[in-house]
Amino acid sequence: MTNSWNDIKNADVVIIMGGNAAEAHPCGFKWVTEAKANNGAKLIVVDPRFTRSAAVSDLYAPLRPGTDIAFLSGVMRYLLANGKIHQEYVKAFTNASYIVKEGYGFQDGLFTGYDEARKTYVDRSKWDYEFDEQGMAKVDDTLLNPRCAINLLKAHVDRYTPEMVERICGTPKDKFLKVCELIATTANGERSMTSLYALGWTQHTTGAQNIRSMAMIQLLLGNLGVPGGGVNALRGHSNVQGITDLALLSTSTPGYLVLPTEKEATYADYMKSRAFKPIRPGQTSFWQNYGKFFVSQQKSLFGAAATKDNDWAYDYLPKFDVSYDVLKMVDMMAGGQMNGLFCQGLNILMAAPNKAKVAAGLAKLKWLVTIDPLETETAHFWENHGEYNNVDPKAIQTEVIQLPATAYAEEEGSATNSSRVIQWHWKAVEGPGESRGDIQIIADLQRRLRALYAKDGGVFPDPILNTAWNYAKPENPEPAELLKELNGYAVEDLPDPADPTKTMLKAGQLLPAFALMRDDGKTSGGCWIYTGVYTEAGNMAMRRDAADPTGLGIHPNWGFSWPANRRILYNRASADPAGKPWSERKKYISWNGTRWIGGDVPDYAPTIAPDKSVGPFIMNQEGTARLFARAAMPDGPFPEHYEPMDAYIANPLHPKVSTNPAVRVFAADAKTFGTPDKFPIVATSYRLAEHFHYWTKNVHDNTILQPEMFVEMGERLAKAKGIQDGDWVEISSQRGAIKAKACVTKRIRPIMVDGKPCDVVGLPIHYGFIGLARKSQPVNTLTPSVGDASVNTPEYKAFLVDVKKTTPPASQPAVA
Amino acid sequence: MAVTRRQFMKVSAAGLAASSVGALGFMEAGDALAAGVRPFKLEKATETRNTCPYCAVSCGVLVYSVADAKDAKPKVIHIEGDSDNPINRGTLCPRGAASLGFVHSVNRLKYPMHRKPGTDKFERVSWDFAMDRIAKLAKEDRDKNFIAKNRDGVTVNRWLSTGFLGGSSCSNEAGYLTYKVVRSTGILALENQARI
Predict the structure, then answer these.
(1) DSSP secondary structure letters along chain B
(2) What domains can be seen in chain A, in order of their start residue?
């Protein structure tokens, strides 16, 4: 989230699209209720289903799954065509006026630089600005140049008329226009809109561009960096934010640094394309500090073994050729290219798409290690559960080791919530039986590996033998020690830059801020954005002062919000170029003549005067936010509507390029996509208020509330198929078939697409063959193994199925 | 002064007697009420501040534990929302409100288990056996399949034939240690739930 849970209360308009906060994040949704009750906010919900979020909305608009970009591009067209944009904000704080290179273009569904044979944009060099001799981007402040980013955007979205939106999305034109009108009421600095989304946007082959579309709308409206605004991802797992920050991701290192690629043979090569220089006069371009963060991190990982002479142990890091994300891992497993797999609290047999492929992959592993507090389908993938997991254990040669882990109440440590707030939790009791904490388990693995390599030698043992391990109890490090290591400390005495005769920090002292990190090996720190969380003043994640001096829901002394305890990102943009708040109502930080003041930590150098014209988006080389993304996205500098891979219709905009042309499709999956002649119904998957993923089917109360798998379908479809509420239904896709009970409802109605009714069904994701709930074949039996072009999030939210009435499964035991 | 709920009711009843309500003849009712109050079940419990394990709203929870009479090992008896937490202000959803059932689920794992190739059951093993076995299997695969240089002769130091899926419900501290250990082996296939 750019903003915070509490900040939602400051919104005047809330749009929930690509999520269902009332059911998936009920206690976060409370802040929507607060905004409605006490701030006069209006709630817009756009969703294929009339969800519980929709039930309390002021304005609900349906759309066909997988058509969000068409809808949002239509909104952009409306705002631009009707002058409903925050002109001054857009001009000063975005790249609207930047001149895009000659040669950039878009035609028939393809941007410039596409390679048909390689199915990717091989040449993205034209997706950029014109530069002058000094390397500065050229701009036209009059916005008259047709190649200004905003003019190219206008031309790009011009095709998304209300009629085209209705044709693609099935959203009735009048409802769509009402949504546009309400959104447009926030284009002035007096009012703000917040956008709340979740997996309903990410789990598409256009996932990242869905979110980018809303970010662009928020920029046009001037809603980024202001209270009650922002683009807010409502995240799923309790610490998915933290684990992402800490880079349990195939091509990242902690703090959103990038793991080196194999094209970067040396540290110098690596740094060539990292420490971005400003491309507009006087800008900050904060990534100029990249080397300080990277070297400090290497010191944290490898301690004394990371030296200037060995390029800070650069060779200790693996260099990647391609992304080894979950879809790639499953493809490698199924192709026999993987021998071992660790699953630490991740139930891949349920969580990765196309269950048949995942199961085949697991069966080809030599060994599998699972680490979990609960029984999982993955740990039992080799076990026969009749039609729910019909395998022959004798034929599966995978060795499986299942390790029992403790759970939250049995351990202490910190977790980072959706709004980047790091909070500490304390241990209440010991775990059951012989269960152990994840820290102890992973430390044990390191110690045994280290001992084996020390004793027997082996291939490239250096990084394993030299992993920094300065913990009081090496077999089970204390969480506090690890959080201090993440925060960072002085490796040697650090002189005061103002007076070199004085020492600013002594060796071993904790860093108060990432600004003190150095690229000379004198500082260590695991994750620069976490610096400040554990200082000489103590563990900031433990802070429990709920005071809110401004009344804006900032709570500055509750936990620690990365980076630098900042609660709203880009908050410099809450004031106009002169440093004056856009309005009294939305006052957040402002310039008092000598420094920036306000209730939050400014996202800006605190003493840079407004007349220096440093832009508020300091992470960008431009200092401004990007309406035109340059080459940052693999599938285009502007979002474009593409049909899901299971395409319900040929794309009305460009039927020859119907689906996202930059999507990665593995050879093994090429024939696994469905077509509407065989599978004429659009399906989407979702979560229930009563269940959490695949865990709570192990919890008695939750299984009483929602005991079994069902398929939610509209009355029209049920009637056409002769299905009554409670009947058994077979749902089939190109990948497989499952059985579920029919839940016939008015909540899903046919959507008129391209003039014809389109039926949609909804499938909850929670049920499998392990647990207390009734057994079911999991939903990922049906879903396609393909992901978003940018980050490969699987397309769980829009795929094609057929349904028919069927007989009950042979057995329906309630499993103990 | 720590006032238990029972004491509070007694004091209130005494207060009632001295008040106009008492004068109206409600005194006996007040006494009966005080006498009928059962001891507050959390009175002797230890209160521990924690965070709900499910979604990333991060609702504060209070975990109440008492020592089990049999083996004196503390056991969680109750979990409720933490009203001091400014994010959830004490509220919990149907998942968080039932999370005591997760702590005590019959499907909680207690012991390391081992399934030999081709068999149809798990067998209980010791931690030592399990961890030794894992370290041995991992080292064998790494030593056999580690790629020091790619086809162009560039040092890549990667190990592609083993993957690690991290849990995004682990703490930051566990997550960072996992990153440290896994990356030092050269594993590239390191992921979590963030993009699935």
Answers:
(1) ----HHHHHHHHHHHHHHSHHIIIIIHHHHHHHHHHPPPPTTTTSEEEEEE-SSSTT--EEEEEEEE-TTT--EEEEEEEE-TT-TTTTT---TTGGGTHHHHT-TTB--S-EEE-TT-S--EE--HHHHHHHHHHHHHHHHHHH-EEE-TT--EEEEB-SEEEE--TTS-HHHHHHHHHHHHHHTB--EE-GGG-
(2) 674-805 (2.40.40.20)
